[in-house]
Amino acid sequence: MSGGRAGNLEKPTEKCGVVGASLAGRDAARPLYYSLYALQHRGQESAGIVTHDGFQQHSHVEMGLVGDAFGEDDIDGLAGSAGIGHVRYPTAGSVDKSCAQPFTVSFKSGSLALSHNGNLVNSDEIRDELAGKGHAFTSDGDTEVIAHDLARNLLEEDLIRAVKRTMNRIHGSYSLAIMHDDTVLGVRDPEGNRPLVIGEVEDGYVVASESAAIDTIDGELVRDVRPGELVVLQPDGEGFDTYQLVERERTAHCFFEHVYFARPDSVIDGSLVYEVRRELGRKLWEESGIETDVVMPVPDSGRAFASGYAEAAQEDGSDVEFAEGMMKNRYVGRTFIMPTQDERERAVRLKLNPIKSTVEGRTVTLIDDSIVRGTTSTQLVQLLKDCGAEEVHMRIGAPPIVAPCYMGINMATRGELIASDKSVGDIRDAIDADSLAYLSKEAIAESLETEKGDLCLGCVTGEYPYDIDDEETDRDVTRPVIEGASSDD
Ligand code: 5GP
Ligand code: MG
User: Fold this and answer.
1) pTM of this structure
2) Are residues 294 and 397 in the same domain?
3) Least buried of 43, 139, 166, 478, by fewest C-beta within 10 Å?
């Protein structure tokens, strides 16, 4: 494949949801389907489930939302008490079924199905090498690369060694649900970049991107899968075995999962996302609180931040009112799906409408989790002013996003990121707010009760925990050398 290694970086990244289940004597398809519903926020482009009945695989993968992708008959057709599922995040322009998952492959020693959340930064090198050895690829995604690499290793090694070998070759972020014949596995990359948890249900065990998926099927969260760990669910639903296959000194958990991406009712790496967001809101008040008549969130992503912010303000003696000053039309999809700037602006207006009485003649603090392109803030400041707000002060629950994400969150390129070349003052001018403040990186680490060095802060520092072409790293890390890959061109 030509294009060189940098070609990796232009590929759409995938932030997705994965799930796997191994139950005793009951089909896995329905609980998997409900779990995917619970993970719908992690991907709306396609949904799929692959099960295994002890003899063969059954697969149903469709474009669209979970509720549209599956009918009763489709679920009934998915026989077997072992299975995995996937929801895929839409990436601008690409609506390609070849990238929908779970990805399946049959080979000499069995069948494999694979669901991936994350993004590899060395998949082209491995693809080159495997293509040179005769592997035929049907998509340009990195998930297929993992599947082929694992299939190849399984010809020579037992399951656990084969997974370890693949983990030592792939570089980047991955939370995986894998099914080898009817054995379901969960794997989390050595930096723990994307979340993955183990859950227990009445008659078996599951792995899932978020604990909310386990709640939905009346299960109990057991614990997070550890960075670099392999979890093997026993096919009879009796338990699971774990293997620490790769160890690193430092983790690189994505802070943005906590700020924006994950559901507030999920517990990730030991913290309830809702509480983290409220704590971030409290820190936002401590760092840059401003007295206004009213504090309001941008729904829904700013809600927990605004409630923490207002609570901390009131504890400090402020008589600021906390109000829902804006209503959201829940039938409008996420604004990022819109391909053009014009459509994105229109979508914000479709999606959010102010409640005039809360803002008219008043000073307002508007709180959101993040600013990416600046579209939402620009539109909302204008909207509130049009409704008679006297002043609009923006407070943001994350640091300025200055660089793209290569790790699986669909973040724009540098050129589109408003903070990539603008100071906070310039952004304030651009969005026409009376004041603007972001949260510090230190506040993020404190709220997550961790060190900055154990987080992936790539999008707010421009330094990544992985070896990415043409980018800086924040640690001593080099990608594995893949013998036989064609050189950089
Ligand atoms: P902006 O309008 O500045 O481009 O984007 C900021 C808004 O998008 C915020 O309200 C935030 O909640 C949301 N947002 C942040 N990151 C993402 C993302 O990766 N995908 C989507 N769909 N929305 C995001
Ligand atoms: Mg938002």
Assistant:
1) 0.93
2) yes
3) 478
